[in-house]
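> call design_seq(struct)
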């Protein structure tokens, strides 16, 4: 007899798995200063060593999205658990950029496996509340950063304890999510249960092979220090033009399908860089703000957690594209204010505006794909989440180089370009959805 599906237990286990993921982000935001001051790494080297936490995430999500229906969700869950365990042990042993890099490969792979398994799992167990429950699930990303930020401030800043002790605390939620998933009946993905073929899933991604090739190149650029993306070079723009042409040919000519998914994917690149790139460099960007940067990070992510928990009414009123457009406008204002803020009060006010702006980006992008492009299945969700992470792995060393040369304030000013592009993109998306609803 098949064991009944315990949706509540699976949801709680998923949230705890995401909590481990988010705690690794909070810890990195704190220990980047330690690896600079104690181990002599430059900001660019730290950005490179942290990169695998993002592109490892992407690899896990892409592979997971492609094979999840063949190997089953439960096996992706246990892959996440074992990768987290190995990565955290290696992080505790890290004392140079190479070891830091390797530990982040495993941590990133664990984090990506969590999202590869849990996003489609939640869409399957809550088919009528996908966007709302994905927002509630993703409460634990900023929520975990709040918890991690407070612990980092208390243990390291106030009590002067080691970063290794702080890192060791992650074994607690790791053990809990392993226990809650153990022995549970985990359902098949929504694509399988609704009868959508594997071929149709690939087709609805628009240009799957071009996208995978693009992301592979981005991973290479993020992991090989000699490859630097230079926006002052004409070669960069030639490569971008080739990618756009390839997407159009594969999507419109070969697959004969609209390019909605690739367009939304481009938006995911920019939303992730705006949110995660800025948050990961909080310590360096706000080092002279007159207030502990970890306190600012806690406030930002606390607002994000509360906003996501109560996202249901807002999404119902504005719909996902409307939420994304409003978020982009507010993000532009927040980053601009942060770039010119002086003193603790103005910095905190600017951070609050920024937090409101980026609050709904990640889960609402996933919710949009799940609702408006449902036939893209688990692969669509995995590609979206993975794209966000690999984009962040590319932007981190670029931001680090900018911080080293131009300084924190100019770097923040440069970052306003990303949500400004998103404003234009989401205006178009709102017009498209109103003319041609997909559900």
């Amino acid at each position: 007899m098949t064991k009944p599906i315990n949706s509540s237990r699976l949801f709680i286990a998923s949230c705890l798995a995401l909590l481990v993921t988010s705690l690794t982000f909070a810890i990195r935001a704190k220990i980047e200063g330690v690896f600079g001051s104690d181990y002599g790494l430059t900001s660019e080297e730290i950005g490179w060593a942290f990169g695998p936490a993002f592109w490892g995430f992407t690899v896990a999500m892409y592979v997971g999205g492609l094979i999840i229906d063949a190997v089953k969700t439960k096996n992706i869950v246990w892959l996440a658990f074992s990768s987290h365990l190995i990565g955290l042990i290696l992080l505790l042993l890290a004392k140079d950029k190479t070891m830091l890099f390797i530990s982040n490969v495993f941590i990133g792979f664990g984090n990506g496996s969590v999202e590869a398994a849990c996003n489609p799992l939640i869409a399957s167990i809550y088919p009528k509340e996908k966007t709302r429950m994905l927002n509630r699930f993703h409460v634990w990303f900023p929520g975990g950063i709040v918890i991690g930020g407070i612990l980092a401030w208390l243990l390291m800043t106030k009590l002067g304890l080691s970063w290794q002790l702080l890192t060791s605390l992650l074994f607690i939620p790791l053990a809990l999510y392993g226990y809650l998933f153990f022995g549970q009946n985990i359902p098949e993905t929504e694509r399988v249960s609704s009868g959508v073929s594997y071929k149709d899933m690939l087709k609805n991604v628009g240009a799957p092979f071009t996208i995978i090739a693009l992301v592979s190149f981005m991973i290479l650029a993020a992991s090989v220090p000699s490859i630097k993306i230079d926006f002052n070079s004409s070669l960069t723009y030639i490569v971008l033009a080739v990618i756009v042409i390839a997407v159009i040919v594969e999507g419109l000519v070969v697959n004969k399908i609209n390019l909605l998914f690739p367009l939304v994917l481009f938006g995911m690149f920019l939303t992730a860089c705006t949110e995660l790139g800025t948050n990961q460099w909080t310590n360096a960007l706000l080092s002279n703000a007159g207030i502990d940067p970890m306190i600012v990070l806690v406030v930002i992510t606390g607002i994000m957690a509360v906003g996501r928990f109560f996202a249901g009414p807002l999404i119902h009123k504005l719909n996902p594209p409307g939420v994304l457009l409003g978020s982009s406008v507010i993000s532009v204002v927040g980053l601009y204010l942060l770039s010119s803020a002086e003193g603790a009060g103005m910095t905190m006010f600017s951070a609050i505006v920024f937090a409101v702006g980026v609050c709904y980006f990640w889960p609402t992008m996933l919710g949009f794909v799940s609702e408006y492009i449902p036939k893209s299945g688990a692969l669509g969700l995995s590609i979206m989440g993975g794209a966000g992470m690999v984009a962040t792995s590319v932007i981190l060393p670029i931001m680090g180089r900018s911080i080293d040369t131009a300084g924190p304030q100019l770097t923040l000013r440069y970052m306003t370009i990303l949500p400004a592009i998103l404003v234009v993109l989401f205006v178009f998306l709102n017009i498209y959805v109103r003319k041609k609803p997909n559900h």
